[in-house]
Design brief:
alpha/beta; Rossmann fold; pyruvate-formate lyase- activating enzyme; seven-stranded mixed β-sheet; seven-stranded parallel β-sheet
């Protein structure tokens, strides 16, 4: 069967849809002919869809929804109206079943399906369910009972239970279905997974909703094989797409050992998302020797009371210790903050900024307003009671919903300006501040920097290319 996989993500700088690369590999391993229609590169995507579907009979169309919106309280830009328009265009040019998937889709699958009008959806990972679906269609067998599938029933959507398989069952990843070299030239990095799922209890996080609460590990040898293929393509800056690279820590150490054993540590620079705990001196040393250049830690707050309310496992003293371990190992550090969750006060914000300055990371990312995702503890908290007064946004996925504690709403932005004034380490998830903006969607500073030769994690590119003397005007290479 000929299967079309469609990338709907058109943000700039461009981010390679590794999920589609992985799904295409699994489909090919199952005996299907797979082609990716990457709308990221198409100025006239309607014409691109029409031309692509004239190229032969399609038996199944898989549409990836990586992000539902830009996750910014300042802009609240939804991507779903564009996805709905793309699905409608696909529908005009093919009678094949259209199935949605992807991380963004899996966070709120029923709502996204209702808005975008596809035939079905796959929540969670798509490699195995989509291959099973293609096999059923090819044999003209019923397919609406497949695990992880959402199908229409009685005017609503029925969600079949997921059945997560071992990631060791995935085929080797050639990374040959996408134009990964172009993504590297224009996007500055490639992505890779070492695991899926997250067992943490953070009240706002959608990763356990989309990827499951049980951590499933890729064999370190498979990770190193994939990295070696990327390096062979000339792609030498990589970012992990795991929820937290260091959970569990022993697997992270094993991955680093395998990278070092292959001699890849000196041939690439890679970045990771990590939790502040557990994080040891051994892990920092192993990561650095394996080529890790920088780590983005989800700090969220420097106030212990707020960290407890967010159900984070770390406290302020852990942040200080973890940054110090990275400094000792020679790893660049970014701490990400989430300001405005229930219980936030003037005092907790001041304490957070104080701890950030004491920790002295290379950069601090500041997000104001907490995205409220269905299925999270925060969504249940704000469904009723006093928290409702802190909501901003709409009632459907085309209008992303955020929470900002009403106690701080009148003064939070002036307060942050006052507390961080003149400190170039602080970046803001806010396009209205182009010289200090780390919202990666439509970020012209990043686009220009990558064009000028910068590579790596976007926060680290901003750290290197934006200075007080030349804000937002990258003029040289990394």
């Amino acid at each position: 069967m000929r299967i079309a996989l469609v990338n709907t993500n058109r943000i700039a700088p461009p981010v390679a849809p590794i999920g589609l690369d992985y799904v295409a590999e699994a489909l090919e391993a199952s005996g299907h002919r797979t082609e990716i229609l990457d709308l990221c590169w198409e100025e006239r995507w309607e014409q691109a869809i029409a031309s692509f579907l004239r190229g032969g009979e399609i038996g199944l169309v898989g549409v990836s929804v990586r992000n539902t919106d830009d996750c910014s309280f300042a802009t609240r830009q939804s991507f779903l109206p564009d996805v709905a328009a793309m699905v409608a265009c696909l529908r005009r040019h093919t009678g094949a079943p259209i199935v949605l998937g992807g991380v963004g889709f899996s966070i709120m699958p029923e709502a996204v399906l209702a808005q975008c009008g596809a035939d079905a959806g796959i929540w969670g990972e798509g490699e195995f369910p989509l291959a099973d679906l293609a096999g059923r269609l090819e044999r003209n067998r019923p397919w609406d009972d497949l695990p992880a599938l959402l199908v229409p029933r009685g005017g609503a959507w029925r969600r079949n239970p997921a059945s997560f398989r071992s990631l060791a069952d995935l085929p080797p990843m050639s990374r040959g279905f996408l134009d990964n070299r172009r993504y590297f030239r224009e996007g500055g990095q490639a992505g890779i997974e070492t695991k899926r799922g997250c067992p943490r209890l953070c009240i706002y996080c959608a990763d356990p909703v989309a990827k499951g609460k049980r951590v499933r590990l890729r064999p370190p040898e498979a990770v190193a094989d994939e990295l070696a293929r990327l390096v062979a393509m000339g792609i030498d800056h990589v970012h992990t797409c795991d929820s937290e690279f260091n959970i569990p820590e022993d697997h992270a150490v094993a991955v680093c050992r395998e990278i070092s054993r292959r001699g890849l540590g000196g041939r690439l620079r890679w970045y990771a998302y990590c939790a502040p705990v557990p994080f040891t001196a051994e892990l920092a040393d192993r990561m650095r020797r394996a080529g890790c250049a920088g780590i983005n830690f989800g700090a969220d707050s420097g106030d212990d009371g707020m960290l407890a309310r967010l159900r984070r496992a770390h406290r302020a003293e852990d942040l200080l210790r973890t940054v110090r371990l990275c400094r000792d190992a020679g790893i660049t550090v970014m701490l990400d903050l989430l300001i405005g969750a229930p219980g936030e006060t003037r005092e907790s914000i001041a304490r957070t900024v104080e701890v950030m300055k004491e920790a002295d990371p290379d950069r601090v990312g500041v997000s104001v307003g907490v995205r409220v995702y269905p299925g999270t503890e925060l969504a249940r908290m704000v469904a009723g009671g006093d928290e409702k007064t802190g909501l901003a946004g709409g009632d459907d996925p085309s209008h992303p919903v955020f929470f900002l504690d009403p106690e701080i709403a009148p003064f939070v932005f002036p307060l942050l300006d006052e507390l961080t004034h003149g400190d170039s380490r602080f970046l803001f998830f806010d396009p209205s501040r182009p010289d200090r903006n780390y919202n990666y969607n439509a970020n012209q500073v990043l686009v220009d920097a990558i064009r000028a030769g910068y590579r790596g994690a976007y926060w680290d590119i901003l750290r290197r290319c934006v200075t007080p003397e030349s804000p937002g005007r990258p003029e040289c290479g990394p």
